[in-house]
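pasting input
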Amino acid sequence: MASARFAEFAAQDAQNHGMKLRFTHPPYPLVGRPREVLRKYVEGNDPVSGRPLMPQVVDALIRPLTEDEKHPKAARGKPRPRLLQPDTEENLHRLFLENGWTDGAPIVLPTEERVAHMLTGTAADPNQVVGQMTVTIHQERLEYTVEKVAVNAVMVGAGPEHLPVILALAASQETSMPSSTTSFGRMAFVNGPIREEIGMNSGLGALSPFNHANTVIGRAWTMMTLNLGDARLNETFMGSTGNNMNYNNMMFAENEERSVWEPFHVRKGFRKEESTVSIFQGWSAINSMGAAGCCRPAQEEMLIMMQAFPCLRGALTLVMDPLVSKHLKEQGFDTPEKLSRYLCENFTMTAGQFWGSDVVYSLVEPGARNGIEPYASWLKLPKDARIAPYTSPDNINMVVVGGETQALWLTTDMWHVKTVSIDPWRPKSGVYKEDEKAARRRQARQKRHAAALTASGYDI
Amino acid sequence: MVLKKATPSTSLCTVLDPRGQPTLVVKPLPLAPRLDTLEGKTLYVVDVGFGGGWEFLEEAVDWFSRHMPGVKTVLQHKKGNMFVDEPEMWSELKQNADAVIFGVGG
């Protein structure tokens, strides 16, 4: 049985797997519906077939199999030719838009010449297989080469200098929009020398649309998810509201220079001179309004904000301005790990609050029922008993970004998925030699910003 | 100031397909043979864990007791969450069940 809202999805999924499953569809949703309503569903009709629901279930179990059901065929995709049929630019733009090969914003058409230029940004062979992706765990994965990644990079307006980071994201084999009815969001940030080499923004307004590199790299991840991860609305992607993080995936560079702590990638075992991209997954980000230092320090404000999250995975990532990291260090948190431990030890919620979340109950309760601790013990507690649901400091991460105009941070429910190296995807020369004028303009901006920070008198 | 209407280019352009290649890893599977009747048979009803599914399936089991009392029903939870495969569950079902209803997806 699959509820009626997912009838099309279930049929498509079964077909993709070469199975002619016999589905019956009760109305949707079931969660939170009174018992008498559920009984009416059982006594009523399948809204998709229009037939009485339970007799249809019985029929599915005893009706002899058809030849198609005995000898099914998978609806396998045919290999796709490298080039599309030649057409006018206008028609090709319409083709990409109507087929869902774009995010809806204008694209650059991936001509052979543009893709060849893009490929000068890496030493990798265009035919090298980079990986496989799918947005949903029960869908066939699509395979992609370096050239396919370059095609998507061209489409979002990236330059060859951005390609190594985009290839590293592709090599992670993580899509930017894993399909869940809960509408996942992603975050990714870059560490290491490549941040400066390609002009990423780690300072003022780094998460806002003011920087070419941040913008196109973030967008490229989603473009790859659409085209290489096979994200198709109502077929493979079922996020109910969707998530506007999906447009750019909170792409930025860590402000290593202004942070009081070791860079994130060094804390994860990489060398400082390596360039990496770190990938996170969650749903939400809440902007703090700061802590009034006279009344409440930042770490206590963080504990208050954490109450907003259901704590499904016991994970959290704080995205903070350099000023916040500086204040925290002054409070004794000279490493991020100390802050992680503080938050784990001092945050509590009631058992009722924890188990009252539908997603927590659906995903965690089965393990609790089967004796997995500490959930099994929490399940037996009265609703008002307090628990400390962030059990592992390793799952609480910090990253520093921003321009020091306000000591604020984002509290996110993101967990760290993986950190991957960018360096294997660089060109032989190390980095694509970009346009000199653009480099000069960027350096001038950075110089002005550094001068402003020095003039503020609040230097690290 | 009079703006000229833009005239789309009619020259043809060749571009690359942006999509990944199918991997063709799916193996088709036939359905399990059907029963002649459910009368006297053991029917497992397995809740995969989506919210409200257990309560709905309790009502479905109750329907069998009222309308087809000759069917023995066994309602149980899937041990892990809905996204985890459980080979031991399949073994148990193959050994003990004549038929199985899984639900409720979504």
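fyi The radius of gyration of chain A is 25 Å.
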